[in-house]
Amino acid sequence: MNAAELGIRIKEARIAKKMTQSQVVGNFITRNMLSQIENGIAMPSINTLEYLAEVLELPDILDFLSTPADEEIAHFNDVSAAITAAKKAAKDGRWQVVANMETTYPEELEDEFQALFAKAFLALAKSAAKSDPALAASYLSKTIRYADQGLYANASVKAEAVLLLQEAAASLTG
After folding, report:
1. How far is CA 148 from CA 65, 109, 111, 119, 159, in A?
2. Which of 21, 98, 105, 162 could form a disulfide with 120 if both were Cys (CB 3.0 to 4.6 A apart)?
3. Which domains are present in the chain?
């Protein structure tokens, strides 16, 4: 429901109850604000909408609070927050934070996260190379897999991972 439809429903309910705008608003909002809401010019806040629903006995008007558009916006905000957090962690060199998103990232951003995972696992492999070659090899395998996938496939990251994996394998067998 858009602002115009909402305004019409509120105005119709007020008229059906034979109430003036001044009677409806009481001390909660101004009459001018109610007029703007009824004419679809202003969108009421959640508190105002709850107040109007109570005064006009319109409990179903609160359904307006969770529309599919709101859910899409909330989902967009979640997706946006996920990629923003991953990019910030990558920029700050907090590669383990990025790697920890491997099972929770939003599917819509699969290409972007594959590129981030390739870089994250490469960095983690470099950190683990001397102290834990087996762990480094595991990270490098993931690097190769992610660097070879998606829109942002990166041959240079893959090539670096292959070389480091060969070194790790040599140190494990040597």
Report:
1. 44, 16, 11, 12, 10
2. 98
3. 3-65 (1.10.260.40), 69-173 (no CATH)
